[in-house]
Design brief:
Number of strands: 11
Shape: elongated
Largest sheet: 6 strands, antiparallel, barrel
Radius of gyration: 35 Å
Helix content: 25-40%
Order of helices and strands: HHHHEHEEHEEEEEEEE
Strand content: 25-35%
Distance between the termini: 94 Å
Strand order of the largest sheet: 1-2-3-7-6-5
Structural class: alpha+beta
Number of helices: 6
Length: 263
């Protein structure tokens, strides 16, 4: 009887050591490993291939479909804020005043003359007051002054520039202009200006961030954002002049002419 009891206890003890204890240890160890993998963010992100915001990275699927293998848009807003803060002090508003005569009334011996204004934008290119703009912004000669028009536009009687966060109107003079490239340079007598930093247009990529900066519809210092839709676009205007241009979907309105396109 005593021998039988001894053998039963020995059998139970051997089963616990050889089966139950390893099983429990395995369960506990597995729980610790799983808890560590999903409880530590850096480990979890590597296992699930996600970033810190929980977005799954598709770098493997993008590696052969674009210029970059992975794109992070979490700082897109900060990019626009930075670009605006950097370029806005270098953008100016341009106002042009000129006289308009009604040629039809002049034919009947009547005089009809009025003063008109036009506006546009410009980019500061030197600290001592040189400003780049479009030729058509500072030129009073437009399609409305053609032979078939009832109106005759005189040369500009006054050209003024308004700086960023400055309501003072600075009188400007024309340094040079070129109708073929639609570029012009004007100058104001002021120093210490914030000149723009020009980029290499040959390095622009389709899909890149693009910000248009200027004074659309008379609203000073406005920015609109989009992307570079295409590069090296061959465009012919109404006068049959050809240009090689950058295409963007950033909103551009009347008054944006002469402003900047920023990446």
């Amino acid at each position: 009887s005593s021998s039988s009891s001894y053998n039963t206890k020995r059998t139970k003890t051997g089963f616990g050591k050889s089966v139950v204890l390893p099983f429990c240890s395995g369960v506990i160890g597995c729980a610790v490993v799983i808890g560590t993998c999903f409880g530590v963010p850096s480990v979890r992100s590597k296992i699930l291939n996600t970033n810190s915001n929980g977005t799954i990275n598709n770098s493997s699927s993008n590696s052969n479909s674009g210029y970059v293998s992975q794109v992070n848009l979490s700082n897109y807003s900060d990019t626009a804020v930075y670009a605006a803060n950097k370029i806005l002090p270098s953008i100016v508003g341009i106002k042009l005043e000129y006289a308009v005569n009604n040629t039809m009334l002049q034919m009947f011996g009547k005089s009809s003359s009025s003063t008109a204004t036009a506006s546009g934008s410009g980019i500061i290119i030197s600290e001592d007051g040189y400003i780049l703009t479009n030729n058509h912004v500072i030129s009073s000669t437009t399609s409305s002054s053609s032979d078939n028009s009832y109106y005759q536009i005189s040369e500009a009687s006054k050209l003024t520039v308004t700086l960023f966060n400055d309501s003072t109107e600075y009188e400007a003079k024309i340094i040079g202009k070129d109708e073929q490239t639609d570029l012009a340079v004007i100058k104001i007598e002021k120093t210490g200006l914030s000149k723009a930093e020009f980029a290499d247009s040959d390095s622009i990529k389709v899909g890149e961030f693009a910000m248009a900066v200027g004074n659309p519809i008379g609203m000073q210092s406005s920015v609109t954002c989009g992307i570079v839709s295409a590069v090296n676009r061959q465009v012919t205007d109404s006068d049959r002049k050809q240009y090689t241009l950058i295409q963007t979907d950033a909103a551009i309105n009347s008054g944006n002419s002469g402003g900047a396109l920023v990446n």
